[in-house]
Write a structure and sequence with these properties.
This protein is of the alpha+beta class. It has a domain at 57-120. The protein contains two helices and four strands. It has helices at 6-13, 27-56; strands spanning 69-70, 83-84, 100-107, 113-120. The strands form two sheets. A two-stranded antiparallel ribbon has the order 1-2. The longest helix has 30 residues, at 27-56. The structure holds zinc ion (2 copies). One zinc ion binds next to loops.
């Protein structure tokens, strides 16, 4: 059994590849690089939005990020999903810590009706905004 160096072995088994250099940059990985750059840019943008939001609402509730709800929406029917955040007193806004008042609002559409909602007297928040996710 003759002994080969790895190069000699390649030459013997793949003679057509003799002298051919491997590509310097695999296109597959070039795509991945771009993808990672885009991904990083995306997350950086989200972080910038979050910082701007935090700056705008310095008194927001840290427990729920100003949403008034904790937990995530899940497709699992067994999952209770988001629940009211209890880190603030019931009559406080989770976005600016201002006072909430109960308002009756008219919902238009296919089933027009009146609904009671909690609205912030200071910033008009109503469980409809929070730190960008
Ligand atoms: Zn909260
Ligand atoms: Zn508020």
């Amino acid at each position: 059994m003759p002994e080969f160096t790895p190069d000699e072995y390649d030459d013997a088994v793949f003679p057509e590849l003799r002298g051919v250099k491997p590509p310097q940059h695999d296109p597959l990985f070039a795509d991945t690089d771009n993808f990672l750059d885009e991904e990083a840019a995306y997350w950086k943008e989200r972080e910038t939005e979050r910082e701007a939001w935090r700056k705008q609402w310095p008194n927001h509730c840290r427990a729920c990020g100003g949403w008034g709800l904790v937990g995530h929406v899940s497709i699992d029917p067994q999952d209770p999903g988001p629940e009211p955040c209890e880190a603030m007193p019931e009559d406080r806004c989770h976005r600016c810590s201002g006072e909430l008042e109960t308002k009756r609002i008219r919902i238009e559409g296919d089933f027009p009706r009146w609904e009671q909602v909690m609205v912030c007297t200071v910033c008009h928040w109503s469980f409809d905004d929070g730190e960008p996710q």
